Amino acid sequence: MISASIILFCCIVALLELDTTYAFQLTFSRGIVTGPLLSLLTGDLMAGLQVGIFTELLFADINPLGGVLPPSAVICCGISLLLHFFGVPLSIAFFFGVLAAIAFSYAERWTRKTRSNHLAVWEKLIRRNSAFATRLICLSLLNAFLTTLLLFIVLAALCTSTALWLLPHLTERALIAFSFAFIAVPWIGMTSLIASFRLKTK
Description:
Blueprint: H1 3-18, H2 31-42, H3 45-59, H4 73-85, H5 90-116, H6 119-128, H7 132-166, H8 172-201
């Protein structure tokens, strides 16, 4: 995958992240969909399916209600598959993806709070000229896309450099521990789902 393809990969990640709340909302941002889609670029469909399913199960119990902003499945899949493409074992790459998804949720919370400070000004502009609403929506989507793209590039650079530095220093026991932890992820996810279904049936 050449540098142009990496840029394309990052742009598609940012575009898929818009599907979470900003636009479309066609469930493309779900891990089960994002993983296989992104793996078409990295060339490892099985890794994409595995990461997608694991991400879906791990984050399934976290609902975006009220002030809760769940970790991004798109960022998790994107970082995991990018690291795996660069030679990081999927069992390790996935945990970097989870950490990146959590970090992104905090950054996203801050950017949303920043945008909300401008709502009063935007409302005045729309009242003066209703045609400004369409332009504002387009600018907001472009801003969200570019912000996500920048954040993903920063997270990808940090995770890739850290993972490639860490990998030679890991002992065989540590690699085995990562593998076992990776295998445990879907079971953890299913356990949380079973608990949720029990609460709903009571």
